[in-house]
Amino acid sequence: MEKDLLVALEEGFQSFSKGHKLIARYVLDHFDKSAFMTASKLGKTVGVSESTVVRFAIELGFDGYPAFQKALQDLMRNKLTSFQRINVTSDQIGEDDILDKVLSLDIDRIRGTLNECSKKDFYEAVDKIVNAHTIYVIGTRSSSALASFTAYYLNLIFPYVKLVRPSSTSEMFEQILRVDSNDVAIGFSFPRYSKQTLNALKYAHNNGAGVIAFTDSKNSPLVKYADNVLIAQSDMASFVDSLVAPLSLINALIVAVSMRNKENVSNNFKRLEDIWETYDVYEKNESDYKA
């Protein structure tokens, strides 16, 4: 479904049957809660059968209830405030066995990422990075951690890696001013999406650079300006963004890039080991002293 799901519900409300109106009204008023309800639970909550809920999803143009639910979850993640996300987390996870539940959700996110991420886009992204003159890495707010991690390791492999730190919009454009068709821009953004990151990728795209977007969905606004989209699930409805799956995907990308530059990477790390030893960068363990 192309249009905003809530808009579609509002526009079609008067044409719905009585049972479908009950479902639509509940979803419109409580989309944060209904996003995680099964068809059976949603039906019981509003007083209709499970089959009625399924037919409602199909009438809206979805293949079935799971597709409708996913669309609702995608919408929810981008619309909820941090305060609302805390309440959803409480409903979804509760207060018991939080460690097990949170880690289990992250494991599910990695599995989902493996199924959703396009291998074609992944390996094309590797090619773009390997062949780029300058690599620009962009991420704001919680995604800045992903950008920093990526830039750190790419900088150990390539001579021209630039971590864009946009403290303001004007400063961001100053940092990417010279981006051109010889370069690649890697952007990270997950709900709620950063306008700064979006504008940076738009600028890079308009200047002919290759654009790689790390995001959570094909409906992400970053997709419009990206040559390659690497989808990583970040579905935990919490004020704390779950970055486990995106980080795992980044690890895979860095490994793939390094395997394409084995000799260069090997030489770089030999030099680094000599530097670390000479300038006593790392603490030695007891076995090192005994040796």
List the helices and strands and how they pair.
Blueprint: H1 5-12, H2 18-29, H3 31-34, H4 39-46, H5 50-59, H6 65-79, H7 82-93, H8 98-116, H9 119-131, E1 135-139, H10 144-155, E2 161-164, H11 169-175, E3 184-188, H12 195-206, E4 210-215, E5 228-231, H13 244-259, H14 262-278, H15 286-290
Parallel strand pairs: 1-2, 1-3, 3-4, 4-5
Question: Main traits of this protein?
Answer:
single chain; 291 residues; alpha/beta; Arc Repressor Mutant, subunit A; Rossmann fold; five-stranded parallel sheet; 15 helices; 5 strands; 8% strand; elongated
How would you characterize the overall build of this protein?
With 291 residues, the chain is of the alpha/beta class. The chain contains 15 helices and five strands. The protein has a five-stranded parallel beta sheet, sandwiched between helices. The model has no long low-confidence stretch (mean pLDDT 87).
Low-confidence stretches: none
Shape: elongated
Q: Please, what is the average pLDDT? A: 87
**Main sheet?**
5 strands, parallel
Task: Supply the CATH superfamily name of the largest domain.
Answer: Glucose-6-phosphate isomerase like protein, domain 1
What is the strand arrangement across the widest sheet?
A: 2-1-3-4-5
- Assess the beta-strand content as a share of residues: 5-15%
Radius of gyration: 23 Å
Helix proportion of residues, in percent? 55-70%
What is the fold-level CATH name, i.e. the topology of the largest domain?
Answer: Rossmann fold
Distance between the termini: 65 Å
